[in-house]
Amino acid sequence: MFLQRKRVMLRPHRPLAALQASAAGNIGIRQAIQSDLEALYQIEVTCQEAWSYDQLQEEISRDIAIVLVAEGTCGLCGFIVGWHVADEVQVLELAVHPSARRRGIASDLMKALLAHCQRSGRAVSIAILEVSANNGPAIALYTRLGFQTVGRRRGYYSNGDDALLMHRVLLNEAAAPGRLI
Fold this sequence. Notes:
The protein is α+β, with helices and mostly antiparallel strands. Helix content is about 30%, strand content about 30%. It has a single domain (about 15-175), classed as Aminopeptidase, CATH 3.40.630.30.
């Protein structure tokens, strides 16, 4: 899915020092709410193919969207957006503020999204995502989480990068209640 980018003026939400402090401490994951939008956007603009403020707002309001945030005592440091459609989880965006990366937050967000979908009571058999073929750290993360490359979209991103299509087969019937899939 190619999202049209819209320029939106960045308005400060929390100081960077507060964000760094929260990433070093305990992080909780919860469902996003409208008041998180500014912080989500601040994290999003650090990404290569950043979504606009309006796109993030639309996802928080969308019925099929699941938007989870990673939060410490000093603010938000990451988020994930997924759609639970039929028996699939489509991971649309996973972003962690640069100062909070390499601390397991992205992995925790992905696991929380998959667990949330499993607990929904609706069947989930596969998780799918697209990632830039040039984003080595993200590809390594997804591979560690059990995703496999199953295809490529040439020239998918606005900078000309290819997208790798990755999926992870989820076996709901093999997962014990409350256990991550």
